[in-house]
Write a structure and sequence with these properties.
The complex is a heterodimer of chains A (370) and B (504).
Chain A: H1 3-20, H2 30-37, H3 42-50, H4 65-77, E1 81-84, E2 94-97, H5 99-111, H6 114-118, H7 126-149, H8 161-170, H9 174-192, H10 197-206, H11 217-224, H12 228-248, H13 272-282, H14 287-294, H15 298-311, H16 323-336, H17 341-348, H18 354-368
Antiparallel strand pairs in A: 1-2
Chain B: H1 2-13, H2 22-30, E1 35-38, H3 45-55, E2 59-63, H4 67-79, E3 85-88, H5 94-105, E4 111-114, H6 116-119, H7 122-131, E5 133-138, H8 158-164, E6 170-174, H9 179-189, E7 196-198, E8 206-212, H10 216-229, E9 234-237, H11 241-254, E10 259-262, H12 268-279, E11 285-288, E12 303-306, H13 313-320, E13 330-336, H14 341-351, H15 355-366, H16 383-395, H17 400-405, H18 410-439, H19 445-452, H20 493-500
Parallel strand pairs in B: 1-6, 1-7, 2-4, 2-5, 3-4, 5-6, 8-13, 9-11, 9-12, 10-11, 12-13
Classes of the chains: A mainly alpha (370), B alpha/beta (504).
Bound molecules: zinc ion (ZN).
Zinc ion binds at residues 444-446, 464-465, 467-468 of chain B.
Pfam families (chain B): DEAD (PF00270), Helicase_C (PF00271), RecQ_Zn_bind (PF16124)
Keywords (chain B): ATP-binding, Helicase, Hydrolase, Nucleotide-binding
Protein name (chain B): ATP-dependent DNA helicase RecQ
Chain lengths: 370, 504
């Protein structure tokens, strides 16, 4: 193993254990894997919210099971974490972080500047926005660069049809094309000049145009003798900062702010499927009716309700959860110092359903960050 | 006529003269005959239908199975050659296709690229029939042959579609085809014997080498060394994604060239970047699965290394055919270890259904679930397998009604399974032919390769093959260190942006 792969392994361990700390004693070992990979399942999305793991969500979308297992076995071997068996036959096994683990996590955190790179990730949905933003920007820069050189016979670097159509629409009129050609470089300069130099290099190095072919993140990593996993952090940081800046002050960058305008037809606080359910909920349909109408499982509708409770503070969920019961659930959760549904349910007994516990917890979480 | 042809050639394609065979093909098409053209990759096949398209009234339809190729060609036609062209395929959203069909109806285009399954659609056929199709060109025509290495079920429906278009002249184009395949194409598309035209298949400027090694370790060592020594740019073909990744990783530990992997498991943006870098000479070597190369036009590729045994002689000929399209001497070397064939054997087994899977297919088909992709979940069948089974089901006369009337469908299941088994045997036969090529060590490789495609040519430029004797050193370059220059120390954001987006 060469130095680079040792450093890569250290870095992955650093990220993993820091993502694991809030999940210890409450979730399985795999929960952190799903978060880092960016699984779109409800359990994962809720974990991200409950434990404030926004920076870690979709940090490594191409993380493989083998990579993951290697990391977990290293963490176990070094006694940074220990496995905890399931308490009851129906509950799931968990894990805890050793004191050595906590120390090591702190050391790594500063060695890899995790706090610095994670700083912009304070809201949900930023991880998904980043990917869309990058694809649009990448193709837009390539197309404008080719327009400027007067040569339109090129391979579009993004093959996604929706992105291609979006860029086409942006450049549809003659005036729009003129504007983009005249001002894109200037706006990018304004947008990126506040960023650290190494982040600027990462962003520009990956872009393609008439005069350069972009490098992949892996190639840039090889050049800098870094691991590609590590470079993912400053790269995401640069994109997140760009998006936040554009959302905050769209007037200053009139062209680039088009990249962050929402154009989807559904309520973007929710996943598309949950948004559909929400429309039916607002029409007063019951869980059974919705499951029937949408040909999905009842449990899926319940997942959606939890998502809606979390992200849509205006929704009145008293039809499913009376305020007094909600208060009781929250009280129990605080008393037991846990967000584990099973433990709360065991304590409260048959009188409450899992759905009610989930709604109550989601509501509490939703209130914290709105 | 001659003068007009040459003028158009000069005006739109920038060539002063035709390449061998091109003029004869075009003249026969213009006189209304069907033609089968066997043209070496890079032998200028697109001119043979793009030029007639300009001279004929109405529209020329080009059938192609490769979406990326379609997009690329249409873009080139529009921007470089100023020929109005469009494409219709499954990657478009319906609104986009509708818009193109509307423009098509107004006679905006001279060429339409279309995927075979889209050409089956009655609505598209009726639009085309109304404006009048003067020529149908079928790219990768060997896909129509059940004897071919790359048979596609939707190609077999093309003769019907052509009939619906009013039987315009047909040009079938392929790079590689054995005698059997030529016969089958000609018969299906009604091409007369004298209208089968082929450029000589023999590539005189490519030297053929064959290396048998005893184990994987020895193979890797030799290939890694060659990648360093041979004069690039070059391609190394591996049979699996895993082999690609392992080879690239081991090369990067000590190699000095700019090397990158390429396979279907990579993100599409990454694949595009790597491909463009290779085309522009920013990479020296691509290590790839057979996913790389289709539709790529890079004339200066100097060598192709086959890290493992290819799956067929056709695939092999196609892959080494990418060497030296600029006419410069090039080098093809095939490495193999005795049990290489097992990988392919395994892949073939996975590609075709078991009898149980055919039964499961029948049950799903019966309940009309075939339209719903989720219904196939538990059977672990790939989409390709379902497509193949649906095709053979139709071929054996099975439809929903017949299926519903039959309980277990034992008879149909048997017949469908026999058909797929036949295909499977054929694939194994192809593999066996490939194996014969590497195992028979006493014969000239060029002779064996060309003879497989029914040709007796043996001429060569620099070297013939490892059997007749060749000097590898002739293909080696100076081992200059081409790794990336040091990053410039001073970074200037404005400068970097202006390089990419120069001020107008
Ligand atoms: Zn020879």
């Amino acid at each position: 193993m060469n130095n680079r792969s040792i450093a890569a392994q250290d870095f992955l361990c650093a990220v993993t254990i820091n993502a694991m700390i809030p999940l210890a004693n409450e979730r399985t070992l795999q929960a952190a894997f799903y978060i880092l990979r960016g699984r779109k399942a409800n359990q994962t999305l809720q974990d991200v919210h409950l434990y404030h793991l926004y920076p870690y969500y979709r940090m490594f979308p191409r993380f493989s099971k083998e990579d993951w297992e290697k990391i977990v076995s290293t963490l176990l071997q070094e006694e940074l974490i220990v496995q905890l068996p399931a308490v009851t036959p129906t509950s799931k096994p968990s894990f805890s972080i050793t004191e050595k683990g906590i120390d090591q996590a702190e050391q790594w955190k500063s060695a890899f500047q995790l706090d610095r790179w994670n700083e912009p990730f304070t809201e949900s949905g930023l991880a998904e926005k980043i990917e869309l933003f990058w694809q649009r920007l990448h193709l837009l820069v390539q197309t404008v660069s080719q327009l400027l050189s007067g040569d339109l016979g090129f391979f579009p670097v993004v093959s996604d049809k929706k992105i291609q159509q979006w860029v086409k629409n942006q450049l549809a009129s003659h005036t729009a094309r003129e504007q983009w050609q005249k001002r894109l470089g200037e706006e990018l300069h304004t947008l990126w000049s506040p960023l650290p130099e190494d982040v600027q290099k990462l962003l520009i190095g990956q872009l393609s145009g008439a005069t350069q072919v972009g490098k992949t993140l892996g190639q840039l990593a090889a050049q800098q003798k870094e691991s590609a996993f590590y470079l993912q952090l400053p790269f995401r940081y640069g994109l997140a900062m760009s998006i936040l800046q554009l959302q905050e002050d769209p007037v200053r960058l009139p062209l680039l702010s088009h990249l962050v305008v929402q154009t989807e037809k559904w309520d973007t606080r929710l996943t598309e499927s949950a948004a559909r359910t929400y429309t039916l909920v607002q029409r007063g349909m019951s869980i059974e009716q919705i499951a029937d109408a949408r040909k999905i499982k009842k449990s899926t509708v319940e997942d959606h309700l939890a998502e809606i409770a979390l992200r849509c503070p205006e929704w009145d969920c008293s039809a499913y959860l009376e305020p007094t019961l909600s208060a009781l659930i929250i009280q129990t959760s605080e008393q037991l110092q846990t967000s584990r549904l099973r433990l709360i349910k065991d304590h409260l007994g048959e009188a409450v359903s899992y759905l009610q516990i989930r709604l109550a917890l989601a509501r509490r979480q939703g209130e914290r960050w709105t | 006529m001659n003068r007009i042809l040459l003028e158009k050639l000069q005006l739109h394609f920038g060539h002063a003269s035709f390449r061998p065979g091109q003029r004869e093909i075009i003249e026969r098409l213009l006189s209304g005959q069907n033609v089968l053209a066997i043209l070496a990759t890079g032998g200028g096949k697109s001119v043979t239908y793009q030029l007639p398209a300009l001279l004929l009234p109405g529209i020329t339809v080009v059938v192609s199975p490769l979406i990326s190729l379609m997009i690329d060609q249409v873009q080139q036609l529009r921007t470089r050659r100023r020929i109005p062209a469009a494409y219709v395929n499954s990657s478009q959203d319906p609104a986009e296709s509708r818009e193109i069909l509307r423009e098509l109806g107004n006679g905006v285009y001279k060429l339409l690229y279309i995927s075979p399954e889209k050409l089956q659609q009655p609505y598209i056929q009726s639009v085309l029939k109304r404006i009048g199709v003067s020529l149908v060109a079928i790219d990768e025509a060997h896909c129509i042959s059940q004897w071919g290495h790359d048979f596609r079920t939707d190609y077999l429906r093309l003769p019907d579609a052509i009939k619906h278009l009013g039987n315009p002249p047909v040009l079938a184009v392929t790079a590689t085809a054995t005698e059997d395949v030529r016969k089958e194409i000609s018969q299906l598309l009604q091409i007369a014997q004298e209208n089968v035209m082929s450029q000589p298949l023999n590539r005189e400027n490519i030297a053929l080498d064959l290396v048998r090694v005893s184990d994987e370790g020895e193979r890797r060592e030799q290939v890694l060394q060659l990648m360093d020594e041979l004069k690039g740019p070059g391609i190394v073909y591996c049979s699996t994604r895993n082999a690609v990744e392992v080879l690239v990783a081991s090369y990067q530990l000590q190699g000095s060239k700019r090397v990158h992997g390429y396979h279907g498991g990579m993100e599409s943006m990454e694949r595009m970047l790597i491909q463009s870098q290779f085309l522009l000479g920013e990479l020296d070597v691509i290590v790839a699965t057979n996913a790389f190369g289709m539709g790529i036009d890079k004339p200066d590729i100097q060598y192709v290394i086959h890290y493992q045994l290819p799956s067929s002689m056709e695939a092999y000929a196609q892959e080494i055919g990418r060497i030296g399209r600029n006419g410069q001497p090039g080098y093809a070397v095939l490495f193999y270890v005795e049990d290489d064939w097992q990988i392919h054997q395994h892949m073939v087994e996975k590609e075709y259904p078991t009898q149980l899977q055919v039964m499961q297919f029948f049950q799903a088909f019966k309940t009309a679930a075939s339209a719903n992709k989720d219904a196939w979940g538990p059977t672990e069948m790939t989409e390709e397998m379902v497509q193949m089974l649906t095709f053979y089901a139709e071929q054996t006369g099975l439809d929903q009604e017949v299926a519903a009337a039959s309980d277990s469908g034992a008879e149909h299941v048997q017949r469908i399974w026999q058909e797929t088994e036949k295909r499977k045997r054929l694939k194994k036969q192809k593999l066996y032919e490939m194996l014969r090529y590497v195992e028979d060590v006493n014969d000239c490789l060029r002779k064996k390769l060309n003879r497989y495609f029914g040709e007796e040519q043996v001429a060569f430029t620099l070297h013939c093959c490892s059997c007749c004797g060749l000097d590898r050193q002739a293909y080696q370059g100076d081992r200059t260190n081409t790794t990336n220059k040091k990053d410039e120390n001073s970074w200037d954001l404005r400068q970097a942006l202006e390089k990419l987006l120069p001020k107008k």
